[in-house]
Amino acid sequence: MKRNFYLCEVKMINDFYDGDSEPIVTLEAFYGPRKKLLDKCLIIFSKHIYKHLLQQYECRQIAEMVACNGETPVWSFTYKNQEIAFYLTPVGSALAGGTLLEVSHLTGANKFIMFGSCGSLDNSKTDGKFIIPTQAYRGEGFSYYFAEPRDYIDIQNSEKLAIIFSSLNIPYVQGRVWTTDCLYRETVNLVTKRKREGCIAVEMELAGVQAACDFYGFELFDFLAAGDVLTIEDYDISGLSDANHNLDKLQIALHIAERI
User: Fold this and answer.
1) What are the pLDDT digits (tens) for 37-86?
2) pTM exceeds 0.90, yes or no
3) How far is residue 83's CA from residue 141's CA, in Å, rounded to a whole number?
4) Could you say which of 66, 121, 149, 251 is the most buried, measured as most Cβ atoms within 10 Å of its Cβ?
């Protein structure tokens, strides 16, 4: 009986991905034809960084995403003769990934720079360094609709980003991360498993966002700042606010935008 249940579960996961037929629900139905306004876009998680951009640069609204629970504006500003879009993203793989697809349709953006906080699973490797993910464990559901089922998804521009960080003399570490939409179920056993597989951090968006970008041929450049530290003995959140809101991530993102 257990064996049959296991086979049923595997079939369900395998059944998520369909690369052979067209979607019925389309972005065109809601927003009309795809637009082409610019190429590059910053994905912002911090409300403080978002407000800083609006206050420090001459920004103009170029699009708006609409839903029954409200509207999300998309802005652009000029940085070193380049027009760059930005928006405040929802948290979580499905919402962040779906919002990226809407922004791309409304603006034409195909190069996304995503930066936010994460939980460190190995403080000896992440302390004082930014994290450039190499692979993301697919502990969410969104990615399985955009890529065939397997445990990890490759982060395509990890090496390109590492070269940029090296050229800027910014300390970083590369490694696997764990994507999960359920932060309150990051249990002792699951943390131990992911660490055993080489994960050095846990976050909530990357696997899904990377899968969607791969599917549509977009480029994603993702880096993270460790905030909370997950250890079996203690859970430390003292660095989380700084990891979320420190403006150094924005300056790095702008340097990346210059170079891609």
Assistant:
1) 999 999 999 999 999 999 999 999 999 999 899 999 999 999 999 999 99
2) yes
3) 33
4) 121
